[in-house]
Amino acid sequence: FETYAIEGMANSGIICANGAAARLVQRGDLVIIIAYGLFSEAELIEFKPRFVYVDERNKIITLHNQVTI
């Protein structure tokens, strides 16, 4: 599903689904979050994606600029 994001308390580890999307997930579900934006071609020259991998408490384990499996 696609929904919006609202910034929460820093370092809380809480992921909260809002609106109609809230009916599609439950506490303990694995959720993959993808953020996207619009960029000009000039901005893309320097752009590097960021992949954030977290543990079961949503604490950051690693950061990468490419997908790692």
Describe this structure in words.
The chain has a two-stranded antiparallel ribbon. The protein has one helix at about 40-45, and strands at about 50-55, 60-65. The radius of gyration is 14 Å and the shape is globular. A hairpin with a 5-residue loop joins β1 (about 50-55) and β2 (about 60-65). It has one helix and two strands. About 0% of the residues are buried. It is mainly β.
| Element pattern in H and E | HEE
**Average pLDDT reading:** 87
Uncertain regions: pLDDT < 50 for 5+ in a row? none
N- to C-terminal separation? 23 Å
List keywords for this structure.
69 residues; mainly beta; two-stranded antiparallel sheet; 2 strands; 13% strand; globular
What is the fold's blueprint, element by element?
Elements lengths: L40 H6 L4 E4 L5 E5 L5
Antiparallel strand pairs: 1-2
Question: Would you kindly provide a brief summary of this structure?
Answer:
The protein is mostly beta strands and 69 residues long. It has one helix spanning 41-46, and strands at residues 51-54, 60-64.
